[in-house]
Amino acid sequence: MDDNRRRFLKIAGLSILGMGIKPAADALASAEPKMIPSPEALVGKRWAMVVNMKKLREGGTEVMDRLSLACHSTHNVPDMGNPKSDVKWLWQEPYEHAFPGTESEILHKHHEGWASGLKVLVLCNHCDNPPCVRVCPTKATWKRPDGIVMMDYHRCIGCRYCMAACPYGARSLNWQDPRPFIKTELNREYPTRTRGVVEKCTFCFERLAKGLKPACVDAAKNKELVFGDMEDPKSEVRELLKTNFFIRRKPELGTSPQVYYIL
Amino acid sequence: MLEKAISGPKSYVAWVLVLLVILGIGFANYLRQLVFGLGITGMSRSVSWGLYIGQFTFLVGVAASAVMLVMTYYLHNFKKFGKITILGEFLAVASVIMCITFVTVDLGRPDRAVNIFLYPTPNSVLFWDFVVLSGYLLLNIVIGWTVLGCERRGVPPATWTKVLIYVSIPWAISIHTVTAFLYAGLPGRGFWLTAIMAPRFLGSAFACGPALLILFCMFLRKYTKFDAGWEAIQALAKISAYAMVASVFFFLCELFTVYYSQIPGHMTHFEYLFAGLQGVGNLRPLMWVCVTLAIIAAILMVLPQTRNSETWLPVGCATVFFSLWMEKGIALVVGGFIPNPMEVVYQYTPTLPELSITLGVWALGFLILTILYKVALGVRAELDAGSVSVNAPK
Known about the structure:
The complex is a heterodimer. Chain A has 10 helices and 10 strands. By secondary structure, chain A is an alpha+beta fold. Chain A has one domain: Alpha-Beta Plaits (2-Layer Sandwich). In chain A, the strands form 4 sheets. Chain A has a 4-stranded mixed sheet. Chain A has a two-stranded antiparallel ribbon with strand order 2-3. In chain A, strand 4 and strand 5 form a beta hairpin. Chain B is mainly α. Chain B has one domain: Formate dehydrogenase/DMSO reductase fold (Up-down Bundle), CATH 1.20.1630.10. The C terminus of chain B is likely disordered.
């Protein structure tokens, strides 16, 4: 009897140890690419986006609405219709919310000046040093070699530590089943999400893989949004930033955001 | 030893039944949350952690405070704590189980919780928190149970138990430090981004845990045959008193840095909590009650006249407990999210299901604590009655 119990415990102990080996080995192993990208895929060393506020101002909020819709319909982003459980990937914020502390308090008080009443398009900044990636306990969010901060909806446990860590409010949890709230036509090329997982903009990694630019950039006919490789000196983003004054959101936090705003 | 928890006086059975009912209602509401999603709570896109994570943070402190007994008894050989160290260890066990339960009910996808172990991520503080918390739970169960078993047989604990006891001392400090690091390392949250966070956590933990233990000891003294001894209670009270003063001091240090530097990202949270911001402030009353209780607590605990009084000491301990619960169990977590990174105030109010689930987890903790204390006191009573001969095999 006792012998049986001892044997059972031995086997059980060994099995548990064995189950632990693979994850432990995976954690130590180097991250080698396991897939070959398609030949037509867009490849970059450091993807970045330029939001050209000069052009967006000309178009007004309708243009920004259109760009958000292009993103949200491509990715089956639900329209929850309330600030409590909103899911947002690309949306508008008043200038002073997107860039807190940069406006003149006096101008703001008098509703004067350049930034008064201005709306800004905001999205995940795909930081070079992303705090969300640092805190995720399951590697459900991680930074790709090309700089995209990715999300794995199938690994996320919904702990929302990334939401606490993101200084830009770029992450949304699905507080309930999002599927009934998808108001746009369902895009069968992109997965819908379940309740309890976090989501955000992924720079349209799935479109880049097919050689397409991000959906919002495609919809920006007047080049209000420009996408490209910051490490490529000849890229459009690099050219634009060479000759224009730009700002980034909360750069003092050391996250190195890769969404640049031309004013 | 567990058989001692099965039977007891009517009041014991009634208490266990009450806890089971609260636990049952909480569980039913948790099932609703599982089906609907976390949207059933008051948490939002802006305030993405609420009551659950607040309770978790608070209870890590209660768990860590057992070290105050363990260290005093085993390291400094303070014999007066001999009778109650086990109560501290079992309080730690119940608290850590509550902590783990609170984190679990807070998960959006609890079915995937094992991912934390399947994909271990050393750069995540949450991963380390799981490691230290589960380690601490194991240490306290093993130590408490073994020491109690040895006591029952009238033999000294084995050397390996002693080793575990010494390991548990720094380990207790680590659980609350790592929990503070969950908050103190986030670049965009001014309310939490402060090096005083871990010391503050430890200070409030060492005030709150002993205060709770004193309340338990005084309750047991009055209603059972177990007497912790007034000297032991007084020693605990002194620990709680100075830890309370230390935590008030740490809080004032934080206030100085925040208000003398005048950095908006750090000030706005305090403004929201104590004065209201953008025209709203539903935590204001709670915060002022918390401050008032903290002042009363510090006075009652530090003044020898009130600390030594059998009537005032429990009042002092209750004020310590409730003021720190408001500070750490609610304001610390919620306050960090208001205003949000866009500097917009979006308020948080827990919903009824959320409150019920929270109460359910507390009931679970009290149930575990009741059972463990029943066992411990049962063994003690047996020894006192001399019904078990020394070195009896069972």
